[in-house]
Design a protein that fits this description.
The complex is a heterodimer of chains A (106) and B (187). With 106 residues, chain A is mainly α. Chain A is 74% helix and 0% strand. Classes of the chains: A mainly alpha (106), B mainly alpha (187). At the A-B interface, helix 1, helix 2 and helix 3 of A face helix 1, helix 2, helix 3, helix 4 and helix 5 of B.
Chain lengths: 106, 187
């Protein structure tokens, strides 16, 4: 069985990969996928804590898993709204590259 | 010592994650996200949270990534052509990752590193007293199985009943919002 720090290290690395993707990539749709990676990395650490710090009765702490459940639900809603915004953006500008979307740059 | 399955799923997840940001084709990126999430679901199941592992596959790889691929098809995205890439964002991204990893390793090397508490027959049977004696949860616990779904359902509809209803309203708002957003504006 892996120890808590193994899971936290893997989860942190996944978060770092997602962060790098958001900074590096120019396509909004790939940046959005990287946001999903970061959310899932946070889920992994929540589940690891729920398993390694059991509740008073010795079972895994279900509160952590409840938070993961709600995070997954909110992420699904967020993806639906975000992709609708991307479609509307593409309709208005015919591009989803961040290099060409500089109206708000000032 | 971590088990081989932990390494298998962790490397699948991390290689999938790196593939997401290195492919130029958005469809290939979406497929790598799927691989990454399958590895993540394996890690969840290794932590004996079967329900979360299953909804990770059902919701993320089954619904969310299909939606992504659908949108990529709808927008007819081409490969990101080679532009004269600026070095500042690449340096910033890699620098952020290196800083984050160094800090993570620093914190983890100083923090306590507990092994997983046992989930054997004795622990499960001892916890059965907290639930209704002839209920499904208590009988599975006495039989030495972790009734993961039943425990989550029990908590969801007792302690977390109000947040559950709020999340229902959130999903309704998201549905209406998507319909309004994707309607063609009236001429």
């Amino acid at each position: 069985m892996a120890s808590l720090n193994d899971y936290l290290l893997v989860s942190g690395l996944l978060f770092a990969i997602g962060l790098a993707g958001v900074v590096l990539r120019r396509s909004i749709i790939v940046m959005f996928m990287c946001l999903e990676l970061m959310l899932s990395a946070a889920n992994l650490s929540l589940v690891a804590f729920s398993r390694f710090h059991p509740a008073a009765n010795g079972l895994p702490d279900m509160h952590g898993q409840m938070l993961v459940f709600f995070v997954i639900t909110v992420a699904a809603a967020e993806v639906a709204v975000g992709l609708a915004i991307i479609v509307a953006l593409y309709r208005a500008r015919q591009t989803i590259h961040t290099d060409e979307l500089t109206t708000l740059q000032g | 010592m971590p088990s081989p399955l932990f390494w298998l799923f962790a490397t699948l997840m991390l290689i999938g994650g790196i593939a997401v940001i290195s492919f130029r084709n958005p469809v290939a990126s979406a497929m790598s996200v799927v691989a990454c999430f399958v590895g993540l679901a394996g890690l969840f199941i290794g932590l004996s949270t079967f329900f979360v592992g299953v909804i990770q596959i059902l919701v993320y790889t089954g619904a969310v990534m299909v939606l992504f691929i659908f949108i990529i098809m709808l927008l007819d995205l081409k490969n990101e052509e080679k532009r004269n890439s600026k070095y500042a964002p690449i340096a910033a991204g890699l620098g952020l990752v290196v800083l984050f990893t160094v800090q993570l390793v620093g914190v983890l090397s100083k923090s306590p590193n507990p092994e997983a508490p046992p989930l054997d027959r004795a622990t499960l049977a001892a916890a059965a007293g907290d639930y209704l004696t002839d209920g499904k949860i208590a009988s599975s616990l006495n039989a030495g199985q972790l009734p993961d779904v039943h425990l989550i359902g029990h908590m969801l509809f007792t302690q977390y009943n109000f947040p559950l209803q709020i999340i229902g309203v959130l999903l309704l708002v998201a549905t209406i919002g998507v319909v309004v957003l994707s309607k063609k504006p009236a001429e």
